[in-house]
Write the structure tokens for this entry.
Amino acid sequence: MINHKWVACWGNATSITNRREATYAKDLTLRYPVRMCFSGSMLRFRFSNLTGTEPVTLSKLFVGHTPITFSGGPSVCLMPGKEVESDAISYAVSCGDTIVVSFYLADYTQMNSGTLITGPLSKGYFAYGDFTEADALPPDLSRSTNWFYFLNTIDVLTSADNHAVVCYGDSITAQSWPDYLAQLAFGSKVSVIRRAVSGTRILRQYDCITYQAYGLKGATRFPIEMNVAGATDVIIQHGINDIIHPVGTGVNPFRPWSDLPTVAEMEQGVEDIYVKPAKAMGLKVWSGTLLPILGWRTYNEERESMRQAFNQWLRTSTIFDGCVDFDEAVRSTANPKAFADGYDSGDHLHPSERAYEAMAQAAHEAICGLQTHNACIAREET
């Protein structure tokens, strides 16, 4: 096999981390295991301080026992608001291998740039001290974490027929369904790249520290997050927070009613902020319907009517290449405003793990199934 195409094989968004009393780390090793979905001969890594306000120095970086370098050097300084790509590193991988990315924060480091994700393929670790070259982290000095700091994307030099599908969204996508989709797509020619931040909205963002972790608005996020080597498709499942967040300043000073958009404004936002730029990048764009919210703490019939109208547009608008009907995959047949039995996590907004698996199946059938079908037709024609 001749490897001559860079394709993203793993990726997450970078956003503002949750504001706590302690926002700095020192003498800390971060370690992230990543399962490889492609075989390849070289790797490169992108690290991000997109939402930081101070320079961040990663003192030592390794993949396994191989140094990750930047212009030949062993460390990198990430300036505020910037992302940096490593040198391309000779590192042969086979589909199914697990690589381990470790990096060390020697001095006081602002931990503003990262994202919280979950799923069967998404778990990291941290340890106090420098263990970047250790085979295993010492149990008494380490813990697991679902916060992914600074590490943003991993590319592999691989076969030309491999490509990436981007899953773009909010907390629904920051949780498990992209991992389950990656498991379903494993062994095919498709990688699944997650670009999701909990709490984000299409049209608005919060600038107060209480809600900063809800992330950047769509117009700011999308051009940065769609820097994905080898991407051919994007699934956009976004908008529920635009509908459910506003409650009025009498209830919450940071959530005025003026933040509540009309459905027409949401539709125009999706077209202008997401679809047109994605099409200009040569990507196929798949809409993802919004999930049930009956029982959520800000639920009312007006919000439900907005969700239904927006979903109808997502299903029928010709600006999309297709629709992944997540709503249909998880809703109750008896009461379509609610989750099906066993599909509600308990908060009436986020799905259960069973529901996330159903969402992944719906995405796989719509995206990967169609691509497999087209590939079969192409082989028959040749």
Observations:
- The mean pLDDT is 94.
- The longest helix spans residues 353-381.
- Helices lie at 171-174, 177-185, 218-225, 240-244, 263-280, 301-316, 326-330, 353-381.
